[in-house]
Each structure stands twice: as C-alpha cells, then as structure tokens.
Records
---
Amino acid sequence: MTKTSGSDNVLCGRLLLIDHDAACARQTSAELTEALLVAPQITHAGTGREAADHLRKLRYDVIICELASLGDLAANVEDAMSRLVRLANGALILAVADSGSVSAALGAMRAGAHDYLAKPAGGSTLAGRLAELAQRHGRPRSLGVEVTPEPEISDYAGFVGASSAMQFLYEQIGRVAASAAPVFITGESGTGKDVCAEALHSRGPRAGNRFVAINCAAIPRDLMESELFGVVRGAFTGAHEDRKGAAELADGGTLFLDEVGELDLSLQSKLLRFLQSGCLSRVGETAARKVDVRVICATNRNPMQMIADRQFREDLFYRLHVLPIHLPPLRQRPSDIMLLTRHFLARYAQEEHKSFSDVTPDAAQRLTAADWPGNVRQLQNLVRRLVVMFDGGQITTDMIEAADIESRVSTPAPVEAPRCEKRTVLPMWQQEQRIIEEAIATFGGNISMAAAALEISPSTIYRKRQSWSELAAAG
C-alpha cells in the first residue's frame, strides 16, 4: 500500500483502537499508519473497561471500536456503546463488527456511534470512512484523510446514493436479503421503503416467486381482512366468488405490508397468529391453509410511540421486528442530493424528449441546502415538474422558484399574532428537560425506549441530563 501524496487533509491527534484480538489490532494499526499521510498516536485497548480507563485519562479524536470487545462494559452492545459515548467527549466513533452482526451494528448506531463498518476492513477502507465522517460532522482538517477511497456504489437496486449512510444501507440489504426472517423497515415518507422491500425480495432466494405489496393505510378497515387473507363465496354481500388474499398470493415469495401500523387492532391479532403458525383462514371459512411467505413490513411512524399509545400490539411488533432497517432522510445525506437530481433530470428529459445540460451552481446550492420534508419523492416530483415546465438548458434558481410548489404551500403567510396575556416562557433547556423526563416516565424509566420514541440516541439523553445537573448546580 502506498501513501497518497498531498498535504491538505491528514489524520493526526489521538486514536483509540478497541479490539480484544491483539494480533488484529497490530495489523489494523500498521495498515492505518501506512494509509495515512501523518500517522496518529494509536492507543490499543483490549477490553471495554480498559478503553474506559484510557478515555478518563486522555481526550481522543477518533475511536475505532470492535463491538465484540465491549462485552465487559454492559450486557448488550447498545448499553455498552452508550457508556463509551458518554466517556468519548465528542470523539468520532467508528464501530466495526462481523458482517452478520446486523442488530449489534444498529444498536451501536442508536447509542451514538457515528458509523459502522463490516469486518474485515482494511486500513484504506477505515481511513476513507474516517475522512467522510470528519467532513460530514464538520470536524477540523486535522481529522480528515487523503487516501484512495474504496469504490462506492451509487446505484443499487433502485436506490441512488453514494453517501456513507447509503453504503451502510446497501450492506444491510445484501446481508438481510438472504434470510427468511421478518424485516421491519422504518423511515420518513418518501425515503424509499417500498424500494427497499423490493430490493430485499429481488436479492433473496425467493426472487423467482411473487412479491405482493399491500398498503394497509389505503384500504378500508372493513375490507382489510379479506384483502389480506382472502374470502370465500357468500361470506358477505358482494363476495360472489372465492378469492385469494395477499398472503396466499405471495405463497413461496414475499408479502410486503406497507404502513403496517394502520392495521386495526383486531386484525393485528389475526396477523400475529398467522406469523406464529404460518396458517390462514379466508373470511367465511374455518379450514386453515398453510402458506410459506417472508413478511416485510414498513411504517413512517415511530413504532415505540404507537405501542405507548396502544395503537400497535407490542407482541406483534417484536414478532415483526426481527431484522430492522432504517432509511435515512434526505436531509441527513446532502451529498446525494445532486446525484439524485441529475439522475431524475436525465430520466425525465428522455421521457419528455427534451435536452437539459445540468444545474447551475446557485441552483445546486439551493437544492442541497433545502430540508426536503418529503425526502426523495419530493425531489423527484420537483425535477419532473421542472422538465415538464421548461424546454431545456441549465436548471436555474428562477426555474426552481417557479416549480417548487411544495415549499410555497408549506410556508404559511404571516399573520398577526393574537393579543394575549403575558405568560412566563421557560428557557429552552427547561422545556427540553420536561419533554425528555416525561418520555422517560412514560416508558417506566427505560431510557433506550424513551430515546426511540423521541427519535434521538440514548447517549443524547445521558449528555443532556449531565448538562442539566451542571446548570442546576451552577444556579
């Protein structure tokens, strides 16, 4: 391996390498030293407790953590990583685990790890990922690297994106697709949950059989059971013939339940029985039919909050939540926005028989800086509208302004504030404290579940509690 020339971005400072395998740690240290222009001061810790001791004595810029080495810190990976994050004092944390440890990787990310890599990961791969993390999290140049990066996937099974968040997603899909276990996909509207479900099917052993999707939010509740499990002739008015449901149609293949949280509670109970037994009964019959399907479900809502609100059965959630996949919102991967824009621009220009050359720098900056509450779907709609409304050439900010209907609709006209009695407004940190403490109380003191409901990491709650204690002591 040859070091890359250049002096703009180098890695220096302190790096803590946590790995119970001393030989593997020595190899990783040597490869990192070889890959980086300026080698960091690398400290090796063989256990989680040893790492904690190092973190109490010194401040580190980067932590590379082999997850199996944290077993002495806590009973599970998520709690161990939470403890590590509290001691890390803002260091970048890159988790490393066996390629099959999907749940461990997700637990580490939920607890505050900045990114995850599957083993084995060479020095150039580690250095490249650290460079991207440093750039993404706004760290100074001394935390960057300049190496020859590993080839990145920019187009995968219907997804478009080359950011580290998408690379991690592609790795997950590749690993999870081969399994027969249920998959639970979460993500905001427009992030591509249906694309993810189809990718899991097409890359798995059931690809030759049917993929049947059913949107649980789009079908009236009184028809949902027959749509899902089928109906026999005469079961109710309008049932003129026997008809298979989605679960039976997917026999041998994949059943995708989109917006599964919208199912009626009584139907959730029947779905749970189906998952447990693999048998179903059509509406109006007593005989059970055995089917073999892989179930993938998705929701854009917070499942923990639905459970707390008694809108979703907890036992059904844990039956479905075997292999979780979370799709990142577009605002968390801004480096993919122009890649997606050019992809959609080329597609729709070809469909409309028009010629668009590119996007002006000002327009690109505007697109990249947008929040995109509708995520990829909103961007896709905007680009299609641009292609239809204009004849060609470069996309400009004026063109975007004319076509960006959603932003204008979502920005309400200013109205005069109603006059009301003067009230005391609490400081932001006190309001935030009240919200977080109420969430913790709702889940009986379980910080991990409260964090999931608030869509923040447990490490954030621990850090905020510590800062509140300091504020209270200072006051």
Note: The radius of gyration is 25 Å.
---
Amino acid sequence: MTDEADVEVAAAELDVDAGAGGVAHDVLQRGLYYEELDLDARYLHRPGRTMTEADNVLFSTLTMNPQALHLDAAWSSSQPFGERLVNSMLTLAVLVGSSVAQLTQGTIVANLGFTDVRFPHPLRHGDTLYAETVVTAKRPSSSRPGQGVVTLAHTGRNQDGVVVAEATRTVLFWCRDAAP
C-alpha cells in the first residue's frame, strides 16, 4: 500500500507532476483487442509516409537486394517506367507498419501469414503512401483460449488515391481479458 508521499516521490523520479491539471489516470497507446476490432469499419492509418530515394536505397541494400530497378538510375531510365521504383518489399513493410499503432501495438500475439500480396501500380521516390485496413473476418482461436484469429485486408494508396499495394494478413490477437 502506498501513501501520497510515495506517489509524489515516484512522480518526481519519472519527472511527472502528480495530479497536474486534474489528470485522473494515464492512457497508454495500444492497438485494439480482438473484441474491439470492427468488421464494419475501414481503419485509416495516418499520417502517410513519403518515400524518399534514401529510404529506398537503404532498405534495398540492408536487405541485400541489388535490383538495378531500385538502385541504378541510368539503367532504370531505359526501362518501361523510365525511373527507379520504390522496392516493393519496402512498400509492403511500410503498409503493414503503418497499421501497428492503431491496430496491433501490444495486442498482437503473432503474424500467421500473408496472402494475395499485389503491387498494381508502382510507388516512386517522392510518393506518399497512405495505408488503410479492413477487418474481413475474425473468430476465436480453437486451439488458443483467450486469443482470436483475424484476417486483415491492407491497402496502400499514393497521394493521388491510386492503389499501389494490397495484402491480406492473418493475425493472432489477444482477447482483452486474457492479455498479459
């Protein structure tokens, strides 16, 4: 059991003013639990992410992908798109990553898999990727009590609203009452 002096000391150690501004409680940013995921919603993940040449070159080299379409401006200029394109794996990573704060931060157990990954239009240096997600299915796990299997349809659009990436992802979520 703590008393008011202990709370003040703890707050001082955290550089927080206990009771400042009439704050009654803290709210920790997290994703949504299984029960909170809405089948009738489209989750818009903002802000978008403008993809730079540096992002593309760094990601491509970090992942040991020497594809000239991502790294060689002279060669790429002679190809059908006339310029280097953003690595599609970077596009996918940012698409999924954009959903984390809103949907899965602290509420995910595991990614179970990806299907139907498509890149119908190229993403170019300087384009901004906007992500959105629709929950297409959910069910309680039959083998893992307190968890649920959820299917997410992720869509990435550029600044003009053109779809540049789509992916279906299956995720294992915590149910609220079972979460650690």
Note: The first helix runs from residue 4 to 13.
---
Amino acid sequence: MSPKKWLATIGVTSVFFGSLLAGCGGENAEKKDGEGKQGEKVEVTLAGWGGNPTEQKLLQQTLDDFEAKHPNIDVKLEVISEQAQYMDVIKTRLIGGEGPDVFYLDAFEAPALIETGVLEPLDEYVTDDFDIDDFEKPLLDAFKGKDGKIYGFPKDYSTLALLYNKKMFKEAGVEVPKTWDELREVAKKLTKGTEVYGLGVNPELARLYHIAESKGGKVVTNNKASFADPKVVEALQPIVDMHLKDKSAAQPNEVGAGWGGEMFGQGKAAMVIEGNWAIPFLQDTFPNLEYGTAEVPTIDGKKATMAYTVAYVMNKDSNKKEAAWKLISYLTGKEGMKTWTSKGYALPTRKSVAAELGYDKDELRAPLVAGASYATVWQQGTNLPIIVNNFNNQFVSAFLGERPLAKALEEAQETANKEIESK
C-alpha cells in the first residue's frame, strides 16, 4: 500500500491541546530543494492552528526575524483556525499532494503520521551547532520513528502541575501535599459540601495516563488496549473513590464550569492539576486569585506527570527542503524559540532557553519545567485515538458511580480492541 493510500485509512481525531543554521547540502542540493539561485525569492508555506492574539503576534514576530536573516526566503503562514479540524485538513492536503512545506504536528498524532512515510527525516540536516542535546529528552523522543530517526523538533510544551488556592489552604491549616495519599487527606479537609471541592478532576486518559501506569500496569501493550489490567484499576480507583466515597473531588461540569482552570478560578475547587495554559488564563480572568503551583504529588515515591508537545515537521514531498529546514532550525533553535516563548504562553523545549528566560526558577512555572525531564508524553502508538475514546466513555461512567471501575474498563478494553482488529 502506498504511503498516501495508507494515510487515507488513518482515523481522524481532534488534536489535544497543544538557532539559526546555515543549512546543509551543497549548491546542487540548494537548487534542487528550493533554496534558489542568488537573489531569487523562495516561498515556504508554514501551516498551523490559530492561537490567542498574543501568541499570533509572537509567531509573526519570530517569522519576521527569520525573514530578516534570510532575505531570499518568504514564509507564507497558513492558519487553520479550527484546531479540532486541523489534522483533517493536513491529511487531506497531503493525500492530494498539496501539503505545506512545514507544519505543526501534535505528539498524539505523530506515531501514525510518521508511519505513513509522508514526513521528511531531519537527522541529515542537523549540524553540531543545532545542539540536539539541549532539548528535553522525552519531548524530542516523541517525534522519533521506529527507525530511530527524528521527524520533528518540538516547538513548545506543557506538563501538568498542582495548582492550589493559598487562602483556602491557610484557612484549613493544611500543607501542600507531596504525595497522592497526602493529597487525598488534604482534599477532604478543604471540601465544603458542594460549594467547594478539595480537588477538581478531569476524568480522561489524557490527564490520567501517568497515574494509570503508576502501579506497574500498562494502558497500551503491543498497540492494543490493556487498561483493564488490575494494576491499572488499582492505580485509578482512588480518583473514583475521592468522588464517590470521600465526596472531595468533582469534575468541572458538576459545578457549572467549563474546565479545571475556570473551576479553580471561581473558587469551586481548592486544587486542580492543570498545565501552563492555566497561568495566563488565571492572570487575565481572576487577577486577584492568590494561588501557588507545585509538582504533581508522587505515587509510591515516584515522580510522574504528563507532557503535551507539538513539533515542526517537514513534508517529504516539499521541493523546498533546504529552505524549509532553515525555517524549522530557526523556529526550534535558541533564538527563535526564545522569541516565541518569551511571554510564557508556551514553555521552551530547550533547557537553555528555559533557563535564560528564568522559567526554571519562576514562582509559578518552575514546577512545570521541572516535570519535563520525567514526564510521560501524551502519545502511545498508532491506535491511541481508538483506545482513548473507549477509555474515556467508560471511565466517566465509573467516576459517576454508574458501574464498578474494573467492569467499566474491561468493557472499554474489549470494545477498543475489537475496533482495532477490524481496522
């Protein structure tokens, strides 16, 4: 089966959130791959989804800086406004031979797209001054193929951290929990009936994957669902028990909130586990809220968190590969990444940039940065879209008390694997 036909069979899912080099290759390669003769302009297309106005301004500034340093390269930015439809659009364009030269790729979607063969491996373009070792390893590894080659360089990321309401903690006389056992006890003391819950919970696999595997079980084995493993059930049961038995946890929609950051900002949860995206939201929407952040509590003495990351990748069919690489290398190099992440809306995947911007010591962002080195990246093989849909449907039913967790996950696993086998 050809790569493009194989690509067309992939199920489409929504995307979960989200140095300057001279390049390589000789004169012949430059002419072949679209760098152009001296004085000629080359247009490189860059596709991504839209962000808030500040993010769009930062991206445009970074692109303007790149064009100033590369006067022979123009960047045509194509913003696909609906993030949920982004991969739909990209796959359709790739199938039709009209894909952009460079585009965003979420780690969640990366394994399946890499396997189709439509992406250009980037290893041969890299020179020593690009400093691959500067990237946080889990984030870089997310864009490696089974062949060990790198198909994308991560542009930014977020991990998860514990956000806690300082005023509520002081009034309850409790300390910031360092373990999940401590968190459960603290949550009870912080709960005030249905007015304030100790913990706001997102009952979905994207937020719970690291917890699910904390007791030694595996959510996915050999590209099939294995989350009915008793060890996974054991790891997740306390989350369900906090909701049903302790009455100390709730999901946002149970208190009329749209998501965890809103639930926390409204004072309906004393703690939530959220990403970097919550910080600018809370600053803008709840500027008077006094809160702190901490690393996600440990389980059995082990640190764990999730990471969500997006890379710049190159279309293998691009006829402007040298120019496309120069763009990627600038955007994911130290200079371009510093500009893009300078306002804190996104965290830099390069350790040196995080240190230069002070995020590793920032009062609110330091716990998020600390988690990058040990985080579980939100991806797992080519069948994760099927697996996550079935997990989420049944886990929520258990969280709401409609059925036992073990039974719910057993049914979800069976359905997921039947869908995988019938692909």
Note: The chain has two domains: 3-158+307-377, 160-306+381-421.
---
Amino acid sequence: MQLDMSSASLPVYEALSSEVRLHIIRLISEKPMSVKELAQELGLSSAIVTKHLDKLAAAELVTSKRVGRSKMTELRVDTIEVKFPREIYPTFQVHQTSIPVGHYTEYRVQPSCGLAGKNGYIGKVDNPRYFMSPERMNAGMIWFNNGYVEYQTPNFLQGHEHLEMLDLTAELGSEFPFSNNTWPSDITFFINGKEIGTWRSLGDFSDIRGKYTPKWVPDNVNQYGVLKTLRVTDHGTYLDGQPFTDICLQDLPTDHETWTVRFEVKEEAEKAGGCTIFGQGFGNHDQNIELLAYYS
C-alpha cells in the first residue's frame, strides 16, 4: 500500500493511531482471528473490538471472511510506503520528458506478457508479436516475464548547459500470471546503454485496487506498483534518496542527440519475477515514465 500527504490517506493514518489497533495488527499478522478470539486476547468486549476492526477495514488494512460460524479477520497488506512532498534543487533548471509506457522503440519479451489501455487489452495477452502493434502507443500498462523494453528520448541540452543530475521516475512492479503480492523480481535500469543498477520489486500487487487503474481491469490482476526515483549525480547514483550504485554522470554518454532508457529482467537474475510498468491512467501515480535532466 502507498500513502501520501493528501486527505485520501487520512483513514489509514487514523486507523494506525491506536495502540489497540496496532496490537490487533500484530495478532492477526500471525494468523486470522475471530472477534471473540481477539476480545479474549486483548481483554476487551467483542463490541469494542468490532469497532476497532471496522476502523481497520475502512482503511483497507484488514479483510474478513466467514469460516464456519466464525467471521475471521486477516491482514490485507504487509507493507506501507509513505511518499513525502519534496522540492528538488530549485536553483537548477530542468528539461523534462514524459514518456508513455507504450512508446518503447526496442523490446525483447517473453510471456506472460501483454499491454493494456484505458478501454481494454491491446492485442492478445501472452503473445509478444503484439508488442509491435501500432496500438501499443495507447498502452497505460505493460508487463513481461523476462526480457526488456527500451525507450528513446530527445537530448534537449544545449551547448552552454551543464548537466548537474539526471532523474528517472517510473511506477514498477513484478509480473505474475494474474497477481502475487509476494513475488520478488530483480529489475535492472539502463540509461544510454550503461547499466545503472538493479532494484528488487517485492511483488505483483493486487491487495487493493490501484487509484487510477481503469474499472475494466479485474481485481485479481496487477493493480499498482511502487514509484521509484533513480538519480544519477556527479558522485554516484541514488534510489529514492538512498545510495544505490557508484555509477556517476561521467560514466554515461550524454552528448548524443537521443538518450535511451531500458528496464530489463535478466534471464540470469537471482529473482527473475518479471516486470510491470504502470503509466498514465493506471496504478497509484497518474504519470508516465519521467526523465528529468537538471542543468545549470
């Protein structure tokens, strides 16, 4: 689950602001429990426990199902990520390119794979030949088991402009037929043909629906990913603000008229669990793949 600083995230923050509800989460993280079992464990009445469970359910943190005569409650999520608003080096100027996820110029993919637009699937699912369909330009989500997709973008830097850092932002997840919330995958980033580093996605998420995922998408398939920001600077590369690799701007060829961005799941990856890329109109972030070149 991903949260931000908007009012839409308040139900989750409020649900977590209680010692009792935190205790409930710890208990049901070990096994599903009934209201009666929780009441006995917590030393509270069933009516009070029910109110706490309603609060957690309203925040989409827990779910309940009938098992015999008992109503059992279990967790819906195991990770919550909070994105804080931030201002990035406002003294720098920036050339920003927004790349739709279907605008790749080169690919090699293997099933399970496919493309989806706002009104339905594009071509046939699990058939790589449809990755070359002209309709791919309308895709808002693409996925593949292993292989890569590569994008080209113009280099807008002028001769008098000095590149200070490069940001690549995309919403990514693993790929599993339908979905699997615990399905790690090693996704490798390349910029201008240079391997930058590998990030391990934890799953192919469908525990809750994506904020922007179209209604036609079934509940049991990819719903959203994790927004990742890769930053290449003069002194190394950072992922979401944390040190990532030693690759520096000087290691990248940046004088070409076009730059390339590639997302790849290598066949020899330790966790080759596929890749899903979410673009505008899908997932939890209504954006395309963003490449920002900060310059002075």
Note: The longest strand covers residues 163-173.
